[in-house]
Amino acid sequence: MKSILIRYGELTLKGNNKHIFISQLISNIKNQLSSFEKDKIKYIKDNNSLVLDVDDLLVNEIIDKLKNVFGIYSFSVIEKCDKNIQEIFKVVLKIVNSSDKKRFKLEIARKDKSFPMSSADLKLELAPMILKAAGDLIVDVKNPDLKIEILIKNDAAHVFSERIEGLKGLPVGVSGKALSLLSGGIDSPVSSFLTMKRGMEVDFIHFMTPPHTTPDALEKVFELAKIVSKFNSKNFKLYVCNFSMLLQELQHIPQQSYKITIMRRMFIRIANKLSLKEGHQSLITGESLGQVASQTINSIDVINCVSDIPILRPVLTHDKEEIIAISKKIKTYETSILPFDDACSLFVPKNPVTKPKRWTAEKQENAILWNELLDFTLENSIEKFSLINGEFIKQE
């Protein structure tokens, strides 16, 4: 068996609610590792860390899975041994001999205060033993290329030489549930990912407009939801709304420059009503301030005012390069740039209004029959999908 030490990071600062965050994190880890046989993994937790005892052959696969779990600060593959200096020395020497690095630093933390030696005393006794046995090793406390850490814990001494960075953030599920407007572009998957990082479970809604948008465009959205799902809760939903009837009616507004603004107000109204029914506490969009002509603070105000729940915009202050960098990191970029247009990109007017006003937007809406069509769309034109065994299955 091998052991993996998982550090909680930010979760340890949550005071009396710490156990709630840690329990959710462990639940999410178990969900990520659910494809492995239960008897291959043993969970050992305390207030500041979690240790997984795992089958030797599964270590690399499990590490890859842990990299997708929000709430993990970092983790290490560790060697456990008895809490005596000879046994600790043997494990440290094994690590040294398996490495070609020569600038060495030893760090020791005594978590078990009943251990008879202080951290400093243990280091003073252990370091000369290692240097003598290793031969050509030198101490370099400022710029080591091999740092070996020893934790003296209640159950054993934990020895390791590498810290693997986790996603950090909060465990998905501790901050409630949101509905993300997933367009198929670069920005909305990144916004969804960043919202998950702060502990929100995320469902998705996509607005399609057949025959103007193609089946390939919808398949692209399914693929994006699959990619982002590895960071999400196991029970998330994807809603697909056929927006064609409302879109046709929008062609009749008096001022065509307001078309994209009115379209987004309709998206928000539909998402609000769906959220009320399905228990979402906020919406998520991929709007970035000033990125395109219609994403101004005036537009945001006119769109916000039709929502009864908060609208989160995680990439609001990011520029395009920053958003693209995150999309590449989470592996949505290549799918997002596939040449299949969504409803917004297809129907942006030639000169969209950049400083819309609420009363003018309301005037445009009063000129069309949107209320009845919106209710019809909610009742008849939204399909719900769940991801089951890697494929989206329509739910009744």
Automatic annotation (TrEMBL):
SUPFAM superfamilies: Adenine nucleotide alpha hydrolases-like, THUMP domain-like. It catalyses: [ThiI sulfur-carrier protein]-S-sulfanyl-L-cysteine + a uridine in tRNA + 2 reduced [2Fe-2S]-[ferredoxin] + ATP + H(+) = [ThiI sulfur-carrier protein]-L-cysteine + a 4-thiouridine in tRNA + 2 oxidized [2Fe-2S]-[ferredoxin] + AMP + diphosphate; [ThiS sulfur-carrier protein]-C-terminal Gly-Gly-AMP + S-sulfanyl-L-cysteinyl-[cysteine desulfurase] + AH2 = [ThiS sulfur-carrier protein]-C-terminal-Gly-aminoethanethioate + L-cysteinyl-[cysteine desulfurase] + A + AMP + 2 H(+). Pathway: Cofactor biosynthesis; thiamine diphosphate biosynthesis. It comes from the Bacteria. One of its GO terms (molecular function) is CCA tRNA nucleotidyltransferase activity. Its main location: cytoplasm. InterPro entries: Rossmann-like_a/b/a_fold, ThiI_AANH, ThiI_fer, ThiI_N, THUMP_dom, THUMP_ThiI, tRNA_STrfase, tRNA_sulfurtransferase_ThiI. GO terms for cellular component: cytosol. Catalyzes the ATP-dependent transfer of a sulfur to tRNA to produce 4-thiouridine in position 8 of tRNAs, which functions as a near-UV photosensor. Also catalyzes the transfer of sulfur to the sulfur carrier protein ThiS, forming ThiS-thiocarboxylate. This is a step in the synthesis of thiazole, in the thiamine biosynthesis pathway. The sulfur is donated as persulfide by IscS. This is Probable tRNA sulfurtransferase. It comes from Entomoplasma ellychniae. The lineage of its organism: Bacteria, Bacillati, Mycoplasmatota, Mollicutes, Entomoplasmatales. The gene is thiI.
